[in-house]
From TrEMBL:
Binds 1 heme group per subunit. Keywords: Dioxygenase, Heme, Iron, Metal-binding, Oxidoreductase, Tryptophan catabolism. This is Tryptophan 2,3-dioxygenase. It comes from Nostocoides japonicum T1-X7. Pathway: Amino-acid degradation; L-tryptophan degradation via kynurenine pathway; L-kynurenine from L-tryptophan: step 1/2. Heme binds at residue 249. GO terms for molecular function: heme binding; L-tryptophan 2,3-dioxygenase activity; metal ion binding. Homotetramer. Heme-dependent dioxygenase that catalyzes the oxidative cleavage of the L-tryptophan (L-Trp) pyrrole ring and converts L-tryptophan to N-formyl-L-kynurenine. Catalyzes the oxidative cleavage of the indole moiety. Its cofactor is heme. HAMAP family: T23O. InterPro entries: Trp/Indoleamine_2_3_dOase-like, Trp_2_3_dOase. Belongs to the tryptophan 2,3-dioxygenase family. Its EC number is 1.13.11.11.
């Protein structure tokens, strides 16, 4: 009688894994992985334009497309976090924000793949990109708007695309995640200044000292305001992560095109560097200087 150990050894030597009886192989009637995910469409949506074909164009396309998929999920999660906060459901909203942070890390880590593209390899595909640029990513603007970095000029970029224009115009006028957090705090009895609650949602937030006072009280006694304190720190994590993405983009752009202008018509790295001065939650940063 061969022992179990002998049988194991035979399986290992054969170096193959037999299918189990229950594993499905006939999808003439049943739902398959590819059908559920619409993989035919997804995997036939890469259309390199270079002629003669350039090996690296597929990397360039896939890096952008995967970023757009993750941005789609970010928009979905941020919208949901915003609705949950509006309904006073703080803990479920925090769960959404935890996922947001992981997606951001994935997006930032992904830069390492594109960083393998050398300046000369990029130069081979640059002519075929023509005037297209990540600057025209409406989902990236949607994330910025949801977090509060509103800018009406960005909406004009989508005059040619009704659906994108409509989405951004709606988000421009709707309260940001930060706005709904402040309204939540007000409902919970925090002394959020009225002019903060009534502020024009289409504008980016401007530092308000009265609001810093509210956060200073929270940071002075975290134990008494734990949920609020935790949410403030989650928001700072999200801004931090967003800045990391911006910085990695800037670094990859610098090593790829130096100080040449971008395909979208900007000065390139100088324009991108100025984005590092933008903040979503000014008071959550200002409060740090108040902590004794
Ligand atoms: C070698 C690759 C890349 C280069 C050389 C590059 C270059 C640039 C430049 C120069 C700009 C400024 C606008 C312009 O004039 O075009 C820009 C903006 C932007 N790019 Fe890229 N990019 C690259 C990859 C990516 C990838 C993979 C994404 C992912 C979606 C992306 C997303 C964006 C976004 C969202 C903006 C707007 C940023 C802002 O408004 O501050 N880029 N890019």
């Amino acid at each position: 009688m061969p022992s179990d150990a002998d049988a194991d050894a035979v399986t290992r030597t054969a170096n193959r894994r037999d299918l189990e009886e229950g594993i499905r192989t006939d999808f003439s009637e049943d739902l398959s992985y590819g059908t559920y995910l619409d993989l035919d469409r997804l995997l036939s949506a890469q259309h390199p334009r270079s002629d003669p074909p350039q090996h690296d164009e597929l990397l360039f396309i896939i890096q952008h497309q995967t970023s757009e998929l993750w941005l789609k999920l970010l928009v979905h999660e941020l919208r949901s976090a915003r609705s949950l906060l509006m309904a006073d459901e703080l803990q479920p909203a925090l769960k959404r924000l935890a996922r947001v942070k992981h997606i951001q890390h994935t997006l930032t880590d992904q830069w390492a793949v594109l960083a393998t593209l050398t300046p000369s390899e990029y130069a081979q595909i640059r002519p075929w990109l023509a005037t297209s640029s990540g600057f025209q990513s409406y989902q990236y603007r949607a994330v910025e708007f949801l977090l509060g970095n509103k800018n009406v000029d960005m909406v004009r970029v989508f005059d040619h695309d009704d659906a994108a224009h409509h989405m951004l115009d709606e988000l421009l006028h709707e309260p940001s995640l930060y706005d709904v957090f402040l309204a939540y705090l007000s409902r919970r009895g925090y002394a959020i200044p009225q002019d903060v609650l009534d502020r024009d949602a289409t504008q980016p937030p401007a530092l308000h000292e009265g609001l810093v006072d509210v956060f200073a009280a929270v940071y002075a006694a975290p134990g008494e305001h734990w949920g609020v304190y935790e949410t403030c720190e989650e928001l700072v994590d999200i801004e931090d992560n967003f800045q990391e993405w911006r910085f990695r983009h800037l670094q990859v752009v610098t090593r790829t095109i130096g100080h040449k202008p971008g395909t979208g018509g900007s000065s390139g790295v100088d324009f991108l560097r100025r984005a590092l001065d933008l903040t979503f939650f000014p008071e959550l940063y200002a409060v740090r200087s108040r902590i004794p």
